[in-house]
């Protein structure tokens, strides 16, 4: 049995002149995600991408479809049978191949797309003949053209004929890396991995930066963040990961700055370090998992003070979301269980008793000026370690 996977483009189909560029990126992403499943070729025809395994009997279709479901830029996915391009073959193979679905259904219809205009029969005739063959194999089935349980699809293309029954929804969005790159500030919490997912969905390629404060934070806390990144890669692709030693900066904040401003100043320092790493990586956008009013450091005033620490664009894709909405995405992308593991984050280690919920930028800048952090920021950047997470 010879099968293939049909992938329908999502929003890319609308992109007019740029369409080829988006399509190329999507094909590259698909190729990359499936490459260890066996040899295959890819063809693109009229907004459909065909993944054709070279040795279908050894190709893990279930795993492949599972992976393709997580690739952004795709509207729908079908697994289809490759059939000899004759009406007899179509009539013989359709009932046999779709037998599992057809034996569960009460009603069906056949729809034919005849892209190869040399095929001797017209679309309605093909549908009628294949429908007839299905009815004789499953006499209890009825045709329902309005609301059938199953739509049997026949495609007659230049390169072959295909049969399948419906498609499963793709992940939507835009192909990752079609919208440029951003640097995600990732903690071990629930929110920042979800922020990565949201940005990847709009085509952004994600790099990640994590601040750790040993010995206040442990090796296990770091491991947890790396695990979160690994869990994101089916959606984001590989993630360049930067780990920054943050202890000294935090200790100096504690010594020199007003306690109620700890959190906002710490967040500003993170922005300043992240900006320097981004600059080296030629990235101009930062992403955080902040959500408005979730905690004291996420009021509009606090966010304003954080934002003012860097000229870079800072995106907060979760800003208008409730915790329950964020958690439901975290569960869907399987980061939730890891995120709730109880390892300390550098933020929780130095939490002030009464953080200011309405910090004023001039006061924050004044509090920060009590110490020259520039050399420590440079040092943290210099000591940053890099790792590629796949
Ligand atoms: P999360 O669930 O992502 O930890 P949170 O609701 O706990 O978010 P905070 O801990 O206040 O909120 O952090 C706000 C944002 O700051 C995080 O979403 C993340 O983008 C960034 N951040 C916090 N701690 C770190 C860290 N140790 N390393 C990198 N980024 C961090
Ligand atoms: Mg957190």
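-> sequence recovered:
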């Amino acid at each position: 049995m010879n099968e293939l996977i049909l992938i329908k483009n999502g929003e890319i189909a609308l992109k007019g002149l740029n369409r080829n560029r988006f399509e190329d990126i999507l094909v590259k992403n698909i190729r990359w995600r499936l490459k260890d499943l066996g040899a295959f070729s890819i063809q693109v025809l009229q907004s459909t991408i065909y993944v054709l395994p070279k040795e279908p009997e050894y190709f893990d279709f279930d795993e492949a479809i599972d992976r393709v479901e997580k690739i952004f830029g795709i509207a729908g996915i079908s697994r289809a049978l490759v059939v000899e391009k004759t009406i007899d073959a179509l009539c013989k193979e359709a009932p046999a191949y779709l037998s599992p679905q057809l034996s569960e259904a009460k009603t069906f219809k056949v729809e034919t797309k005849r892209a190869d205009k040399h095929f001797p029969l017209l679309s309605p005739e093909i549908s009628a003949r294949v429908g007839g063959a299905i009815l004789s194999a499953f006499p209890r089935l009825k045709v329902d053209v309005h609301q059938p349980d199953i739509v049997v699809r026949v495609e007659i293309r230049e390169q072959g004929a295909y049969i399948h029954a419906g498609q499963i929804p793709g992940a939507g969005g835009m192909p990752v890396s079609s919208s440029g790159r951003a640097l995600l500030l990732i903690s071990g919490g629930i929110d920042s991995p979800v922020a990565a997912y949201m940005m990847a969905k709009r085509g952004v390629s994600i790099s990640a930066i994590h601040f750790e404060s040993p010995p206040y934070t442990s090796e296990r806390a770091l491991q947890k963040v790396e695990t979160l990144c690994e869990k994101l890669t089916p959606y984001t692709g590989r993630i360049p990961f930067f780990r920054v030693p943050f202890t000294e900066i935090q200790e100096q904040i504690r010594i020199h700055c007003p306690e109620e401003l700890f959190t906002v100043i710490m967040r500003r320092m993170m922005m300043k370090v992240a900006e320097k790493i981004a600059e080296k990586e030629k990235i101009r956008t930062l992403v955080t998992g902040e959500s408005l009013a979730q905690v004291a450091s996420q009021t509009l005033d606090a966010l304003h003070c954080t934002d003012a620490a860097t000229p870079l664009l800072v995106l907060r894709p979760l800003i208008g979301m409730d915790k329950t909405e964020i958690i439901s995405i975290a569960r869907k992308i399987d980061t939730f269980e890891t995120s709730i593991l109880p390892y300390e984050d550098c933020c929780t280690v130095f939490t002030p008793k009464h953080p200011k919920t309405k910090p004023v930028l001039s006061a924050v800048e004044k509090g920060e000026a009590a110490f020259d952090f520039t050399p420590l920021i440079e040092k943290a950047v210099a000591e940053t370690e890099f790792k590629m997470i796949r």
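The chain has a mean pLDDT of 94.
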